[in-house]
Amino acid sequence: MARTETPNSEPHYGVKQVRGPFVVLPPNSIATEDDASLSKLCRSLRSRDTPLAADLFAGAGGISLGLERVGYKVVLGVDHYNFAVETHHHHFAGRSLEWDLADPDVIEDVAATIRKNKIELLAGGPPCQPFSKAGRSMIRHRVQSGVRDPHDERRDLWRSFLEVVQLSKPPAVIMENVPDMALDREMFIFRSIVEELEQEGYSVSAQVVETWRYGVPQMRQRLIIVALRGNKQFNWPSESPQRVTLWNAIGDLPPVEGGWRPPGGAAGWTEYNGPSTQYQSMMRCGVDAGDSGKVFDHITRPVREDDRAAFESMTHKTKYTDLAPEHQRYRRDIFDDKYKRLDENDLCRTITAHIAKDGYWYIHPRQPRTLTVREAARVQSFPDEFRFAGPPSAAFKQIGNAVPPIIGEVFGRAIRSALADGRKAKLSTRLTAASLAKWAGVPPTETLVPWIACGDRWKITVAELLLDRAPSTVIRSVWPVVEMQPTINRGGLPTDADTALLVDLMSGVGRTARTEILKNLIDQMKKHPEALWQPTIDRTVLPAVSIALADFLELAAPTAERDTKSEEPVLVTKGVLRVASRFQGNDVDKRNRQTDGRLAVARMIGLGPDSRIAHLKLVQLAADICTVETPSCSRCPLRARCAAAAS
C-alpha cells in the first residue's frame, strides 16, 4: 500500500506541482538491487521457461505492463526521471535504474546486463531531438561505414538505444515514438534506424499506429518499429473490433469536486460502486478484493470560480473564442483552443505530459473540472490497481509520457507469435536498394524521364515544368532540345532566345500553359538569382517551384555542399507510392500517403550507399515499368520479391 510522506526537501520538477498527497511506493517483492541478485532471479525465471524483457526509457512502465500480460517478465527498467523509476521499481521485478542513457558507460552496462541474463526482448521509446545537418552528415558516415560512436561521446538517445541493440543483440526489439520522429523531409532518423538494425541481422517492420484501433480510448498515434533477429517475419496484429469511447472508459468513476482530497493522504480513496462496461471491468480486474469498493488517485487540481463558470457554459463543440468575454482570461488570437471539454461519446484527445502543467485541454464531459489522475490513467489503459509515485503533477507527467499498456500487450503477443513461427521475412531494405542500384547500371533503351540522370539542376527544372506527364512522343521531341541548351550555373539565367525556343516548342505540342510557369520562374530568378541552387529552396521567393519539384531537384541534382548540407528528401510523388504499394502488397498509395506511404518508400531506399540512386531508379521504375495500367513485371528488377508480381 502506498503511504503518505512529506519530503525533507522539495525534489526537482520540470513543471509546477499540483498540490496533493505525495505517493511513495515500496520496491516490488522480487525487486533486486545488484547484478548478482538480478542474475539469480533471471536464472530462476528462465528455468521455468519465462521469457525475459527489458524496457529502456521505461517511464512508469506502460510497455512493461503490456508485455507482462502476454507472459514476459520485465527484469530491467531504465529511465532518467526519479518518480517514474520508483513507479517501475514498485510494479516490476528485477532492477529499475535511474540512469542516463546518453552516457557511453551506461550503454555498455545496460547492454552487458541484457546479454549476460539472456533477455529476449528489448523495448524502448527514446526521445528524438533535432540536430544539425553537419551532425547528420557525421551520423550518416558512421551508419554507412558501420563504425560505432566514440566511447566518450554523449549520444542522441535514439542512437543510445541502437547501440544497446548492437552490443546485446536480443532476439526481438520493439521501439515506439511519436510519428514526427520519422516523418521529417528526409526521414533521416527512421532510415538510420532501419539501416543499422538490418546491418545487425534484424528484419524490420514499421507502421504508424492509431492506438484507438487496438482498444485504447483516445486519439493517439505512435510509430511502432519491430525488429526480429534472424530475419524473421513479423505480422501486424489484428485491430480491435470495438471502439472504446471516453465514457466507456471512465463513466463508472464517481463524481468529485476539483481540488477535493480524500482523507488519509496517499492511502485515501473514493467510494466505488462497480464497473458497467467491458473496458471498465478490464480496468478493475487486478484490484484486490478488499479494495473492490475503492478507487485511488481520483483527484485533480482545484478549479477557479471563473473557470468553473466557463466550464459549465461549454459543450464539447465550444471553442475558447466562443466563450463569453467574462470567461476569457487569455488572448483570443493565441489561445483559440485553450479550453477543451471532452466528448463523452467519442475518443479522448491525446493525453500528453502537458496535462501535468494544466488540464484545460481535458475538461470532464459532465463535471466542471479537469480530468483526475485516475481518469487520465484509464484513458491511457492503466488499470486501477496501478499507482504512480510522487505528487499528482508527477503522476500526470508519467501518464502523459507513457505508452498505453494495451499497445505493449498487443505487440508483445504478436512478437511472441512471430518468434515461435520462425518464418523468414520478405522485405529487406538493403537488398531492395541494392537491386535498384544494380539496375541503374543497365542503360534504359527508352525512358519517360530521361532528364533524371543528367545532373543539371536547371535542365531538370525545365523538363519537369514542361514535360512532366507528357506523352512519350512529346518527350522524345522536346527533351533533346532542352538537353542541348547551355548549362546554367548558380546565379545564371537562360537567354531570351533559349526561352523563346522552348515557348515555340511547347506551343507546337499543345502545352503552352506550361511555358507560363517557366516564364514566371525566370522572372522570380531575376530577383533572386541564387535561390534555385539552395539546398532547401525558399518557395516564398520562388513560388513557381512546387514542394514536389524542390524535393526532386535536391534528390536528382544535389547542391555542391552535398556532404554537409544536402538532403535526400523522401518522395511520395512521381508514382513512387504506386511502386511501394505493389511491391509491399499494401494500399499506401490510396490512404495514409504522408505517414505509412512515406514509411513504405523509405523502406525501399534505406540510408546506405545506394540510397540516392535507388530513390531515383524508383522514379524511373514508376514511369517506365510499373505503370498505372500496364505494368511490365517481366522487366522489373524487383519482380523476385514483389508482392504484386507474385500474385
UniProtKB/TrEMBL annotation:
Keyword hit for S-adenosyl-L-methionine: yes
Enzyme class: transferase
Keywords: Methyltransferase, Restriction system, S-adenosyl-L-methionine, Transferase
SUPFAM superfamilies in UniProt: DNA-glycosylase, S-adenosyl-L-methionine-dependent methyltransferases
InterPro entries: C5-Methyltransferase, C5_DNA_meth_AS, C5_MeTfrase, DNA_glycosylase, HhH_base_excis_C, SAM-dependent_MTases_sf
Keyword match Methyltransferase: yes
Active site: 128
Reactions that this protein is recorded to catalyse: a 2'-deoxycytidine in DNA + S-adenosyl-L-methionine = a 5-methyl-2'-deoxycytidine in DNA + S-adenosyl-L-homocysteine + H(+)
Entry's EC annotation: 2.1.1.37
Name of protein: Cytosine-specific methyltransferase
Protein species of origin: Williamsia serinedens
